[in-house]
Structures are given as structure tokens and as C-alpha cells.
Design goal:
By secondary structure, the protein is an alpha+beta fold. Strands 2-1-4-3 form a four-stranded antiparallel beta sheet, sandwiched between helices. Helix 2 packs across helix 4 and helix 7 packs antiparallel against helix 8. The mean pLDDT is 92.
Length: 215
């Protein structure tokens, strides 16, 4: 079964406004209604597939909105991450797809090794960002089966990573070059837009690329 890696640009500060959700503006309250509807639809889809996480996505969302993620259900992490993705989706730009992979973790681990061998510094290797987990002020359990997953890559450091990857590309095995080139293109597109957008209404100092891995 393949997993799909999606990504978008977002201001993490907007996401944190809902973690917990306090003193929301009229627009944020409107978005909250859309999130609750999306959570209901996500749970209906899980029910149709006969997938039971022992915690509904709707309840997981309400927990997060209250600033907690303390369910003791074995698969609560999956429900919490699904709810987090809904919050992110409603505060982000358009989502794009990096690719569909049998094992994204295996791919990014291989890229880490190849780039490190080519001289890229440890703090710029991709898997630590793609699999960073959510940036939340309270503990959120991870999914037991590693799906869905969330990653955050601060845009302030993406340009440096792109330069390092391009410099190392010729030393990376040909079997990984296509995937590396796709990652470089994705990172460079968002980093360039963020860099050139300084001063625009949507721009934020803490802008980041959010990765979502589902499947």
C-alpha cells in the first residue's frame, strides 16, 4: 500500500490559534465550523472502511481545541494526527503532492544517507523535517502505525538546504536523483515565494512548509 506525501505553506501561528482555541475571531470561528464538518466527514470515511481508532476524529479535534491530547486509546495518535491535519488544512494554502511511495520513510532515510555522504550537514537532512511531528505546546501521541504523519520545515532554513542539495546532486546515486530533484523543486518553489513575498499580507516570519503523509 502506497503512502502519499503532500505539502503546503502555512503560518504556524495561525494553526496554534486553535491549539487551544481561545478568543477566536469571527473568521476563525467560521473556520472552526468547517473543521468540525471535515472531522465528521473523515470519521464517516473511516467508518465506511471499518477502521476503528478507538477515538473518533471529531472527539480528537475537540480535545486538541481544548489544549489536550490525553486519550489512552491505543490508536488515539492516529485520530489526533488526523485532526491536526484538518486544522492545518484550514489554515494553509493549496496542497501539492510530492509523490506516492511504498515507504516514504525508507526513501527519505536513503536520501539522508546519500546527502550526508555527499557532504550535506546533518541539520539540513530532509527526514528530520518531513517526520518532525507537530509543533504543539502539549504532548500529542504519535500514530502507532506511522500514518498519518506530519512534518514541519521552517522556511527560514529551506533556501540553505536547497543550495546544499543542488551542490551534492551529482554525487547522489541515479536511483535517488529523480526523487531528490522533485524535493529540490518543491522546496525551492515555496522558499522563493516566501522570500519574495516579504511585506505581503500573508507573509509571516515563522512561515513553514507543512508535510502530510497519508495512506
Amino acid at each position: 500500500m502506497s503512502k502519499i506525501v503532500n505539502f503546503t505553506m502555512v503560518n504556524p501561528g495561525k494553526v496554534k490559534r486553535f491549539l487551544p482555541a481561545q478568543d477566536l475571531s469571527a473568521e476563525e470561528t467560521r473556520l472552526l465550523g468547517l473543521m468540525r464538518e471535515a472531522a465528521r466527514e473523515r470519521q464517516e470515511d473511516l467508518d465506511y472502511q471499518e477502521v476503528d481508532w478507538e477515538l473518533s476524529v471529531q472527539d480528537a479535534l475537540e480535545h486538541l481545541l481544548a489544549g489536550r491530547a490525553d486519550s489512552t486509546a491505543d490508536y488515539a495518535g492516529s485520530a489526533y494526527y488526523a485532526a491536526l491535519q484538518i486544522i492545518i488544512e484550514h489554515n494553509a494554502g493549496d496542497w501539492e503532492t510530492l509523490g506516492s511511495y511504498h515507504s516514504p520513510y525508507t526513501l527519505f532515510s536513503a536520501l539522508d544517507k546519500a546527502l550526508s555522504t555527499a557532504g550535506v550537514s546533518k541539520e539540513l537532512l530532509p527526514s528530520q523535517y518531513v517526520y518532525s511531528g507537530p509543533s504543539v505546546s502539549f504532548y500529542v501521541p504519535s500514530p502507532l502505525e506511522g500514518s498519518p504523519e506530519i512534518g514541519i520545515w521552517p522556511l527560514s532554513g529551506v533556501g540553505q538546504a536547497v543550495e546544499a542539495y543542488r551542490a551534492a546532486a551529482d554525487q547522489v546515486d541515479t536511483d535517488l536523483r529523480y526523487d531528490l530533484d522533485e524535493l529540490i523543486t518543491a522546496l525551492d518553489t515555496w522558499a522563493s515565494e516566501w522570500s519574495e513575498g516579504r511585506g505581503e499580507w500573508w507573509w509571516a516570519e515563522d512561515g513553514a512548509i507543512f508535510f502530510s503523509i497519508v495512506g
